[in-house]
Amino acid sequence: MIEESRIDDFALIVTWFESERTVGKEVLGSEETAWGWVQQIDMTRKQIKLVNDDGFWWIYFNRLMRIERV
Known about the structure:
Blueprint: H1 2-8, E1 12-23, E2 26-42, E3 47-52, E4 55-60, E5 64-69
């Protein structure tokens, strides 16, 4: 779905984990959600660039939680 969004230019709703701090072995953070189009997939850094009218986010693959088509 990520690659299709980049190629076919359709919007997604992406939810990912945003870490805030580490306590012992636990990573604390929050769930972030944004909508937009995947403009770029960086396989070297293992992240996607999600873009919408409000800005953009670089999101690491290992932090992705949910992806939905708009």
